[in-house]
Predict the 3D structure of the following.
Amino acid sequence: MSNFIRWTARLLGVAAIASAPQFVGAQEARLLAIRDDATRDFVRQFVEAARVRGTPTEPLVSRALEGVAFKADRKRIEQAMAALEKRLRRSRDLLGAKATADEVAAGADALAADVPAGMIQEMKKLAPQRQITVELGVLTELVAKGISPKVAAERIKELMARGATGAQLTELNAAVQQDVALGIKPVAALELRGRGVMSLLPPPASVNSAQRR
Amino acid sequence: MFPTLAVLRTSVTDFDPTLPGRAKHGDEQAFIKIVEFYYPRCLRFARNMLGSEQDAEEAVQDTFVRVHDSFPRFREDARFDPWLFRILANRCRTLMARNRRHRSVIEYGDVPQTATAEHEIGADWAEEVRVVLDTLPAEQREAFLLRHVEDLSYEDISAMTGAGLSALRMRVKRACDALRARLTDGSKDDRRIG
Amino acid sequence: MIEESDELIVRAARALSGMPPTKAGAVARVLMAVRANQARPLPFWKRAMRRFDETSVSAKAAGLLMAASLVIGFFARGTVGNARDSFAGGSELSGTALQSIANMPAESRPVPVAVAVELANAKTVAVVGDFNGWDPSVTPMQRVGKDGPWSATVLAKPGRHTYAFMVDGATLVADPRAPRAKSSDFDGDASVMMVRTP
C-alpha cells in the first residue's frame, strides 16, 4: 500500500515539477525541518502532486511537519498525508470549487470526525456566499465531545438557517465545553445551549424574507 | 539594598537584535516578539510621563500601531530603542496636549509580577516622585525619564527630541534640582518606614 | 553611570524603574489595534501626519518650514503635483505579507491569540500548531517572571486549530486547559483551540 502511494506520488511529482518549474519557496524552506532525506523527498513530491490535482497543499505540509514534531516515522507520515489528501479532495468536492483552502481543510477535519458527507454539503448550501470554516470547526469539536455527528450537524444547520454567526457558534461550543466539564451530558448541553443561541436569533419569517430580498 | 538599575531594566530574555529587520520585511512573528518585549518598558515610560494608566495604555497601543506602519522606513543599521522611544515620546506629547486634564493619582490595580517587599514599600515613594515630576515642564520630565529611568544616552535623546546636548543636560539638571528640593523630607519618611 | 547624581536622584529613578504589570491580553489588544489599522487604510494626508511621530521635534519644525515653502511654491508655480507625489511616496504600506493579511475578509484574517502554560521545570517552551506549521522556531514562549507561566501570542485564522507545546526542544505536551484533538494521526496528544471571527 505505502509502496503504491510512494510510487504514485513520485510519478505525479515528476509530472508536477515538469509543468510547474518552481516549487513554492516558502513551503520548500519549511520542508527542511524534515531531517530524513527520504521522508522529505516523499513529502515534497506528494505535495507537488496534490498541487497539480488542485488539492490545498498547506494542510498537507502542516500534517507532515506535525508528524515530525510528534517524532512519527516515515510510514506514519506517509499514511497520514495520504489519508488527509483523500479527505481534502472529498471535502473540496462537497464544498464546491469556490471553497477556500481553509474551508476545505475544515471540511476534511469534519470528515475525519465521521460527519456524514451529505451534512457538510447541506451546511454549505445554507451559506453559499461565505466561508463556513468556523461552522465546520465547531461541528468537529461537538462530535469530539461525544455528540453523534448527525445530531450535531442537524443542530448546527438549524442555527445556520436562522442566521447564527460563526462567533455565536464558537461561543456555543465554549459553553457546551464548560457544561460537559461540570458533568452535564454533551447532547443535553448542546440542546440547552443551542436553544439559548436560537432565542437570540430573529424569527424564521424574517430570515426567510431577508433571504428572499 | 535595591536591585541595580541594570537588573530592573533587563527583561526575562535578551532582545534578539535581528527582530526589527525581520519585522520591517513583513515577518509578523518578529513584530509580535517586539511588542511582547517592549510593551512593559513602553508602558513604564508612558505611565511616568502621563500619570494615567489608561492614557499610558492608549499611548503605547498607538505607538505600536505607528511602529508597524512605519517599519518600511526604519533603517536597519539604526538602533531600534531610540527610534521606538521617539515615536512613543511623540505620542505622549500628543496625548498630553489633547488631554490637559487633571492628572489623578496613579492607580495601583495589580501588584507587579516582579514586586518585592522593597517595591511595595517604595510604592508611596514612587508616588511622591511622580507628583514632583508632574509639576515640572513636560520637556524636563521627559528628559529626566529618558536619561535616568530609560537609561538612554544624551546623544540618543538628542537625536530623538531634536534638542541640543547642553539644553538636554540643563533639563535633566533642573528636574534633579526640583526632585532634591521637594523630596528630601519624603525620602526621610521612606527610610523610617524601611 | 548616572552623572551629577546623588543617592536621592538614584533612588527616585529606581522608584520609577519598576516595570508596570502587563494586563492579561494587553499584547493581543495591541496586535488587534494594528490589524484594525491595517484593515482601515488612512487617507494619504493622515498617514503623512503620522510620519511626524517618527520625527524629532526640531525636524518637525524644519518639516513645517518645508511644508510652508511647498505651499508658497504651489502658489508661485500653480502646481501641487510634486508635493502630492512626495506625500504619496511616503504613504506606502507595510510589507506585502502584512498587506495581504489586511486585505483578507474578516472571516479568514488571522487574529492574535494569547497562549500560556505552566511548565515549572522547562528550560525552553515553544508553541507549535497548524497556525505556525508545527515549527518550534517560529513561536518560542517567554516566561512571565522567574517561575511564572510561559506565554506567547500566535496569529491564527478563525476556526479550529490543533496545537501543542514543545518542551526543551524535544517533548510535545498538550495544553492541560484545552480540549484534546481526538483525530490526531500520530501518537501523542494535541490540543484544540477555537478561534472566533473578530
